[in-house]
Automatic annotation (TrEMBL), chain A:
It comes from the Bacteria. InterPro entries: ABC_transp_permease, BCAA_transport_permease. GO terms for molecular function: transmembrane transporter activity. The chain crosses the membrane at residues 38-59, 65-87, 94-111, 123-149, 161-179, 213-232, 260-283, 295-328, 335-352. It is found in: Cell inner membrane. GO terms for cellular component: plasma membrane. It comes from Marinobacter daqiaonensis. It is a multi-pass membrane protein. Residues 1-21 are annotated as: Disordered. Belongs to the binding-protein-dependent transport system permease family. LivHM subfamily. The keyword Disulfide bond does not apply. This is Amino acid/amide ABC transporter membrane protein 1, HAAT family. GO terms for biological process: amino acid transport. CDD domains: TM_PBP1_LivH_like.
TrEMBL record, chain B:
One of its GO terms (molecular function) is branched-chain amino acid transmembrane transporter activity. Residues 6-235 form the ABC transporter domain. Belongs to the ABC transporter superfamily. Keywords: Amino-acid transport, ATP-binding, Nucleotide-binding, Transport. This is Amino acid/amide ABC transporter ATP-binding protein 2, HAAT family. It comes from Marinobacter daqiaonensis. CDD domains: ABC_TM1139_LivF_branched. It comes from the Bacteria. GO terms for biological process: L-amino acid transport.
From TrEMBL, chain C:
The chain crosses the membrane at residues 16-34, 39-56, 62-82, 94-116, 122-146, 209-229, 255-279, 291-322, 352-375. InterPro entries: ABC_transp_permease, LivM-like. GO terms for cellular component: plasma membrane. Keywords: Cell membrane, Membrane, Transmembrane, Transmembrane helix. This is Amino acid/amide ABC transporter membrane protein 2, HAAT family. It is a multi-pass membrane protein. GO terms for molecular function: branched-chain amino acid transmembrane transporter activity. It is found in: Cell inner membrane. CDD domains: TM_PBP1_LivM_like.
Length: 361, 241, 401
């Protein structure tokens, strides 16, 4: 249970494997009990591999991890906000949409010349500002939103649910006012569309085709996860956040202004949601004001699976949801959403506080 | 008596709808250890929490080093040099011992010499340096709580019942630590039920009953005056020897 | 008599009583007071949503259970009737089978949800219901073979409830209130003409039969819920709302009560869904299962006043009127703001929801008790002011010694 905070990023969970020899069955039940997230992940990978042939499985797995990466971006802010201040922000989806539209504007209107041009460098001239602008807009709106909407209802869950639902309506309507009610097509930058084919000469994985954009999502998701773990585990801010999740009052007694910390986390969380939104927008190649709301379900499943307030749990939750979506989607596309929610209900029955709980809800 | 570092005059405070403090007058002399005595529910802990700005102050004023801090937010009070060790100790159990201390050193990296001094005072902290603080024993947690309060030089320590539930050997270690702090001229306000512990350390003393201070003076005076002890005994001094 | 009907729970505020009377009379005489199919649908929707919102208030207002799965049950009812009539035929037994099947399914699902709340606490429960409702929505959308997917289904209403059926020969007189009011405002000198203009002849049809049946069911459900919350059962619910631990400590199995409330609310929502299908004659995921609809129910409940039940009447009426007519108002305002770049957009008829959202957030901050709660608070203040001696220095009560 202490995993969340004690383990350093490099320390592999395997480290905690039994020192003395034990029978495999004991080891397995121990693994299942103490490393529920890894157990579930392993179980899912193995089971799906048993059903799907290897080449397809690999493509699906990488796509699933890519989706998990984007989901992690979108969900991490919401889980931290809850962990730190037990604020449940149901308007989080609106920030995803907001980021998507802000970033999409850069790609489709302001720097479309660079985005459409062939060549990685000129594409990056469009992509990097798009990502930054999305995060910036979502962050700024997050600042205003926290001050106006959330701050007056600290500590009252019912009112939080109500005002953030209301706030979400307002934000989404404002998106429609600014960008219009119609869908906006966003073409992926030239160098991110298309796919890579692994050289035929490679054994086993030769000839497998991987979409470039998904690889970017994998890389970006992993990079942000690593960065966040570093911040959470190694920096003073990270220590403060973890301390704040345990006891707000003691953090204040030490001389830190918890509200400022929370505001910072809220802004960062909104910015990350925006970042996730623009990635999602590029992935779907179309922007709609409700795209964030549509993602909210997956986001909610992710944070419940992981355990509200846990970054590590959020990461594994995102991977699990991404993977199950792709695997089930491959076998029977119509059941993807049901399977996702089924996974959540199942895990809740098994572990009511999620896979890696940090707080006592 | 030395000049006061902290003065409470007519302090009233509520917790939810209950009036807990009914006008507390208390003077903490600079550079001395003041013991706050009184039975359970007399308002000792609430007094400390009120000084830290953690309760709803409804009347009176709190003056610290010449400034009125009655309406200050808690973090500002802490940064003005007041450290508070609550009765629950408030250790961050999921953080390591090191991380607990890193947080407590508000103004920057920890001072090596001071850390060494803390290790000498409380050797277990060095031993469990990178272990989660939640895994420490009760006495070790109390050591950590006090170490946290003194990891940086502070002007005033507020300590709530540090000996509660601890073994005699550990109580002795704590007493040594307080002796050393006294030598460093740190002002301390200590809430205690353990009269022997208080008598050994205290220079001045205040006794609370029913949300107000009913006696204050020097510890020497109270130690020698059996009659006064008898009178205040009913307020719970003797109950815990 | 009235005391028994209202279970002793009166509106307790004169303006509120007046407001409720206006709504009830308008609903009772609806087909005779409002001409046109749009007004007719609006009246029907109000009846449907009074049930939905009252059931939701039982959970949210009286027990502080936040559930986002209310539309799921609404949808089950709607699709139950739609599927039964399209498979069996447009007969009353088909409708009945549809409703029964839907109620059974809702019962099982809500029982499972209620039991889930054993394992997870309040805020988790809200999130879990949201996810479950979404899974259901996606299932209905995907299984287009049976549900028609995004396209939805037409509901084949029995002939006796349709426009072709004539229960009476001849017509009845009606007077269109909106036309009358408009006439009175714009040309008050021409009373006779205005009166003539607003008269219309109503040919009773199966639709009216349907409407009055719906109104009766809606009133029955509402009065039943009103009785329920004023019964010992209702008191326990409020005790759970105030302090679950204390209620548990007093010996009430709070889990049983919470589960019962979830199930009851689900069943009422299912019934309302069935009524919706019959009156709207078309169901699709968007009008029965969407998250937006869930938010609307939440808005109606909160704006009307949580934990008052009368709030359901006021809230759903206000909201549905706003939904139907606020766009017209904005369109009208829009004539004057044309050409002003951002304002033109902000006041566009499509953005009525923006204003409603803003109103909602402000009302949560400043009038958390909703319309009904606030009216009651004002009346209570006035009453207690009246009971005191008039203010003034000479009327100061003598100091007690």
């Amino acid at each position: 249970m202490n995993k969340e905070t004690t383990a350093m990023p490099m320390s592999d969970p395997i480290q905690e494997a039994p020192r003395q020899r034990r029978s495999p069955r004991v080891w397995l039940s121990d693994f299942q009990e103490n490393q529920a997230h890894l157990f579930l992940l392993a179980a899912m990978l193995i089971l799906s591999l048993a059903v799907i042939d290897f080449g397809t499985w690999l493509v699906l797995t990488i796509s699933g991890i890519a989706m998990g990466g984007m989901l992690f971006l979108m969900a991490s802010g919401m889980t931290l906000t809850f962990g730190l201040m037990s604020v449940l922000n149901l308007a989080h989806g609106a920030f995803i949409s907001l980021g998507a539209f802000a970033g999409g504007t850069v790609l489709a209107f302001w720097l479309d010349g660079f985005a459409g041009a062939p060549g990685l460098m000129s594409n990056l001239v469009a992509i990097i500002p798009a990502l930054l602008f999305a995060a910036f807009v979502a962050g700024i709106v997050g600042l205003v939103f926290e001050k106006l909407v959330i701050k007056p209802v600290y500590g009252d869950h019912l009112k939080q649910i109500l005002v953030t639902v209301g706030g979400s309506i307002i934000l989404m309507q404002l998106i429609e006012v600014i960008w219009g009610p119609n869908e906006i097509p966003v073409t992926r930058p030239e160098s991110l569309s298309g796919a890579l084919m692994l050289p035929e000469s490679l054994p086993v994985i030769g000839g497998i085709v991987l979409e470039k954009f998904r690889l970017l999502a994998v890389v970006l998701g992993l990079a942000i996860y690593a960065a966040m773990l570093w911040v959470i585990d190694r920096t003073r801010i990270g220590i403060l956040i973890r301390a704040g999740v345990e006891s707000r009052e003691m953090v204040e007694i030490q001389g830190y202004r918890i509200h400022l910390l929370f505001l910072g986390v809220f802004i960062a969380g909104s910015a990350l949601a925006g970042l996730g939104g623009v990635m999602w927008g590029m992935y779907k190649e179309i922007l709609t004001p409700h795209m964030g709301d549509e993602m909210m379900i997956s986001v909610i499943v992710v944070i419940i699976l992981g355990g509200l307030g846990s970054i590590r749990g959020c990461f594994y939750g995102a991977l699990l949801v991404g993977l199950i979506n792709l695997y089930i989607g491959f076998v029977e596309p119509r059941l993807a959403a049901v399977a996702t929610v089924g996974l959540m209900v199942g895990v809740l029955m098994w572990r009511p506080q999620g896979l890696i709980p940090v707080i006592k809800v | 008596m030395a000049e006061p570092i902290l003065t409470l005059s007519g302090v009233k405070a509520d917790i939810e709808q209950y009036h807990i403090l009914h006008g507390v007058d208390l003077v903490v002399p600079r550079g001395e250890l003041t013991v706050l005595l009184g039975r359970n529910g007399a308002g000792k802990s609430t007094s400390l929490r009120t000084i830290m700005g953690l309760t709803n102050l409804t009347g009176g004023s709190i003056t610290y080093q010449g400034q009125d801090i009655s309406r200050w937010p808690t973090p500002k009070i802490a940064r003005a040099g007041i450290a508070f060790v609550p009765e629950s100790m408030g250790i961050f159990g999921l953080l390591t011992v090191r991380e607990n201390l890193v947080l407590a050193a508000v103004s920057g990296p920890m001072d090596e010499a001071r850390l060494q001094w803390i290790f000498d005072l409380f050797p277990p902290l060095k031993k469990f340096w990178d272990k989660p603080a939640g895994t420490l024993s009760g006495g070790q947690k109390q050591m950590l709580a006090i170490a946290r309060a003194v990891i940086e030089p502070r002007d005033l320590l507020l300590v709530d019942e540090p000996t509660k539930g601890l073994a005699p050997a550990i109580i002795n270690d704590l007493a040594d630590a307080f002796e050393q702090l006294k030598e460093q001229q740190v002002s301390i306000l200590l809430v205690e039920q353990n009269f022997n512990f208080s008598r050994r350390l205290g220079q001045s003393v205040a006794v609370m009953n029913d949300g107000a201070v009913v006696h204050s003076g020097t510890m020497a005076e109270l130690s020698e005056n059996e009659e006064l002890q008898q009178e205040l005994l009913g307020l719970g001094l003797g109950a815990h020897q | 008599m009235l005391n028994r009907i209202l279970s002793g729970d009166y509106p307790r505020s004169k303006p509120l009583t007046a407001l409720l009377l206006i709504i009830v009379v308008s609903l009772l005489l609806g087909p005779f007071l409002f001409d046109g199919i749009r007004a007719f649908t609006t009246l029907g929707m109000i009846c449907v949503f009074i049930m939905v919102v009252a059931a939701y208030d039982l959970m949210l207002g009286y027990t502080h259970i936040v559930s986002f799965a209310h539309t799921m049950f609404f949808g089950i009812g709607a699709y139950g009737v739609a599927m039964a009539t399209s498979n069996i035929g447009s007969t009353f037994p088909a409708v009945l089978i549809g409703i029964t099947g839907a109620l059974a399914l809702s019962f099982v699902l809500s029982l499972l949800l209620g039991l889930l709340s054993l394992r997870v606490k309040a805020i988790f429960f809200a999130l879990v219901t949201l996810a479950v409702a979404f899974a259901f929505l996606s299932l209905v959308t995907q299984l287009y073979v049976i549900t028609g997917g995004e396209d939805g289904m037409r509901v084949r209403v029995p002939r006796e409830l349709g426009p072709a059926f004539r229960p009476l020969d001849g017509t009845l007189p009606g007077i269109d209130v909106p036309t009358l009011l408009k006439g009175l405002l714009t040309q008050p000198w021409n009373l006779g003409q205005v009166w003539q203009d607003s008269l219309f002849e109503l040919r009773l049809s199966g639709r009216n039969v349907m409407y009055y049946a719906l109104l009766a069911v809606s009133a029955g459900v509402f009065l039943f819920l009103l009785r329920l919350v004023n019964s010992p059962f209702g008191r326990v619910l409020q005790a759970i709302r105030e302090n679950e631990f204390r209620a548990e400590a007093l010996g009430y199995r709070t889990v049983v009560y919470r589960t019962a409330v979830v199930i009851l609310a689900a069943l009422v929502a299912t019934l309302a869904g069935a009524a919706f299908a019959l009156i709207n004659r078309y169901v699709n995921p968007e009008n029965t299962l969407n998250f937006e609809l869930m938010v609307f129910i939440l808005l109606m409940c909160v704006i009307g006043g949580m934990g008052t039940l009368y709030g359901a009447i006021v809230g759903s009426t206000l909201f549905i009127l706003a939904q139907t007519y606020l766009q017209d108002l904005l369109k009208w305002v829009g004539q004057y703001t044309d050409g002003i770049p951002l304002v033109e957009n902000l006041l566009g008829p499509g953005h009525w929801l923006l204003w409603f959202g803003l109103l909602f957030v402000l009302s949560v901050y400043f009038f958390p008790a909703g319309v009904v709660g606030q009216l009651r608070i004002w009346s209570m203040r006035r009453r207690s002011r009246d009971q005191q001696p008039p203010d003034g220095p000479e009327a100061e009560p003598l100091p007690q010694t």
